[in-house]
Amino acid sequence: MQKAVIGPATLYCGDSLEILRDLDGGFDAVITDPPYSSGGMMRGDRQVKPSEKYVGHNHYHEFYGDNRDSRSWAFWMTQWMSLVSRLVVPGGYAMVFTDWRQLPTLTDVFQAGGFVWRGLVPWDKTLSTRAPHTGYFRHQCEYVVWGSNGPLPKSQHGGPWPGMLSQRVIPSQKLHMTGKPVELMEKLLAPVVPGGHIIDPFMGSASTGVAALRRGYRFTGIEMSQQYFDISCERLEGELATLKAGVLCD
What is the CATH number of the domain that holds 135? Predict the structure, then answer.
């Protein structure tokens, strides 16, 4: 296991199932984008490399964990969610991304992992999304399954927040094959207590981490891929330097 501390961010390179067991609690939210193991209807479709499933993304590094069938994916998801639920404070948030194929399974897993499921936040990627072919509706939305660790108290800093988020993906800004826009992640942070601590067990290229730093949160991220861990470290170091420069200019 490799560890890096970058200002208010702590990053780990390794398997989330191992690292989560050793972390102390006190996180105010888990916000994460785990591998969907989607991109196909049959087991054989799902077992090919992500760069082959997600057409046009072969210039990114490959990532792990995207080749499970539906039952093994559900079991694995329940494992890590059970581990992370003990780390999130009572009343803390859980927000987990998925697509249309895995949405029914995730809503079951979410509850099996110990969280209270409270709803969905569709992410509208706008009409810029690719349509499979002319006979299809566009696969224009992904989904955030959200809830809390036990009862959810009334917010002391605002809300209710929008129940659907629109944010276009700009390919030139992505550092990961399935990377989410930082602006989208900033919007998801809104319900979390200001200055709180966010954990992302599937950090990827650290979009959640960048959003957390910009909004004044602490961040803990875990990533199995050495390449993406290195990208995340470099990205957060650059973000922290930019934020410090902005403070000095003010």
Answer: 3.40.50.150
H or E segment and range at residue 27 = strand 27-32
Give me the domain span that covers residue 76: 2-249
Q: What is the DSSP-derived secondary structure letter of residue 29?
A: E
Q: Nearest CA to 167 among 156, 178, 180, 179?
A: 180
The pTM of this model reads 0.87
The number of helices, as runs of H, and strands, as runs of E, in the chain is 8, 9
- Rounded Cα–Cα distance for residues 88 and 83 (Å): 10
Q: How many domains does the chain have?
A: 1
Q: Count CB neighbours of 145 within 10 A.
A: 22
Q: Give the other-Cβ count within 10 Å of 100's Cβ.
A: 12
| Bond preceding residue 160 cis, omega within 30 of 0 | yes
* CB 60, CB 49: distance < 8 Å: no
The CA-CA-CA angle for residues 195, 198, 200, to 5°, reads 160
Going residue by residue through the chain (250 aa), what tens digit of pLDDT does each one get? 899 999 999 999 999 999 999 999 999 999 999 998 885 545 555 555 554 545 555 555 444 456 778 899 999 999 999 999 999 999 999 999 999 999 999 999 999 999 999 999 999 998 877 766 778 888 899 999 999 999 999 999 999 999 999 998 877 677 556 668 999 999 999 999 999 999 999 999 999 999 999 999 999 999 999 999 999 999 999 999 998 887 656 5
